[in-house]
Design a protein that fits this description.
15 helices, eight-stranded parallel sheet
Length: 401
């Protein structure tokens, strides 16, 4: 008898069993010594919640808006590279699950299924994430394709102009397509469910790039082109160039400093994502939940501040909302569900987080996800006592809401 799936950790365990090691660890692990990867979880876990009782919480609303779009809950699926190698057609399955759940889905530049393939498979417009490449003509074409696909927002990832080293990817020989080694062959042969899904998928390469870049006839030359294309010259003046191509909603992902948040606001960006790239870039960078309040304080009245970094449950999302985030994004949780059970697994992740958020709201006396404030959380102080993370007085009588 199969044990019931009760949380995202169960789906992670199932994905680890079903997805080849190189691709599972691509989703699961971080850069260098993984200090920041661990910090994202440790910081979230250090926040305690303020339980409230005798509150009428019978009617609770999780609905909100994101960039002018009404959503069923304050959650979106983050852009994740190689989702189609966690499960065949992974990006299409993720977009479908998100649309059915009433939340946004963001497609990565480094997706396996292309913009056009995803757009043809779903009725609901999705967001598109872009890296600015050294080949600006290609980047312009990529943004234009997103516009033609009627993508509802463009997300510029700003924290990967130089790639941080991820030790596990090197040790696992991660490549697209997978490197042919005895260990990889045996690993993939032991994952028939995964192999069948990938073989049936519409794409098994970098769908947004294949056939679009000159002199990259083979997958190996395409991979070499990508490795050289992340552009360390990217700077704030490039936003004017992007705005000239993209007239719609613009998000910048990778903000960790209030100074950068203010600059983004001064440039008229519609939203930012407070993110350390899931602990996959600058190792030693702070946990995103630790810097979130200062960034919200700096620009929260000027744009939507989204949170990315370690959300594996509705409680984690609740904590991010309490620290000022307008909404949260899931990357690893999405990939765990996808690798475990395809579209059904993604749906299960979303619904687990939805139910957990709703229950957490009830037990903290909250009825509206748009009005969760910092007075609902406690943070454990170094001296092992609990300090209130709010401006409340010791004898405050804050009603339920």
């Amino acid at each position: 008898m199969t044990a019931p799936i009760t949380n995202v950790a169960d789906l992670r365990a199932l994905a680890r069993h079903r997805v080849p090691r190189a691709f599972f660890e691509y989703a699961d692990r971080g850069s260098y010594d993984e200090v920041t990867l661990r910090a994202n979880r440790t910081a979230l876990e250090s926040i305690a919640l303020r339980q409230r009782v005798m509150c009428d919480v019978d009617n609770r609303s999780l609905a909100t808006d994101m960039l002018g779009q009404t959503v069923s809950m304050p959650l979106a699926i983050a852009p994740t590279g190689l989702a189609g190698l966690q499960h065949g057609a992974g990006e299409i399955l993720g977009a479908r699950a998100a649309a059915k759940a009433g939340i946004p889905f963001c497609l990565s530049t480094m997706s396996i299924c292309s913009i056009e393939q995803v757009r043809a498979a779903v009725d609901t417009p999705f967001w598109f994430q872009v890296y600015v490449m050294r080949d600006r003509a290609f980047t312009r074409d990529l943004i234009q394709r997103a516009k033609e696909a009627q993508c509802s927002a463009l997300m510029l990832t700003a924290d990967l102009t130089v790639q941080g080293q991820r030790h596990r990817e090197i040790k696992n020989g991660l490549s697209v397509p997978p490197r042919i080694t005895l260990r990889n062959i045996l690993d993939m042969a032991s994952k028939p469910r995964w192999a069948w899904s990938v073989l049936r998928a519409p794409s098994r390469s970098f769908g947004n790039l294949q056939g679009r870049v000159e002199n990259t006839d083979s997958l190996s030359t395409l991979a070499q082109w990508i490795a050289k294309q992340f552009d360390p010259r990217l700077n704030w003046s490039d936003l004017a160039w992007i705005r000239a191509i993209w007239p719609g909603k613009l998000i910048i992902k990778g903000i960790l400093d209030p100074r950068d948040a203010r600059i983004a606001a001064d440039h008229g960006v519609d939203a930012i994502v407070v993110s350390n790239h899931g602990g996959r870039q600058l190792d030693g960078a702070p946990a995103t939940i630790d810097v979130l309040p200062s960034i919200v304080q700096a620009v929260g009245d000027r744009m939507q501040v989204l949170f990315d970094g370690g959300i594996l449950s509705g409680q984690d999302l609740f904590k991010a909302l309490a620290c000022g985030a307008h909404a949260g994004l899931i990357g690893k949780a999405f990939l765990y569900g996808l690798g475990a059970m395809g579209e059904a697994g993604v749906t299960q992740v979303i619904e687990l987080i939805r139910r957990e958020l709703s229950v957490t709201m009830a037990l903290t006396g909250q009825t509206d996800a748009r009005r969760i404030s910092r007075d609902v959380i406690w943070r454990k102080a170094p001296e092992s006592t609990f300090n209130i993370v709010s401006t409340l007085l010791d004898d405050s009588n804050v009603p339920c809401r």
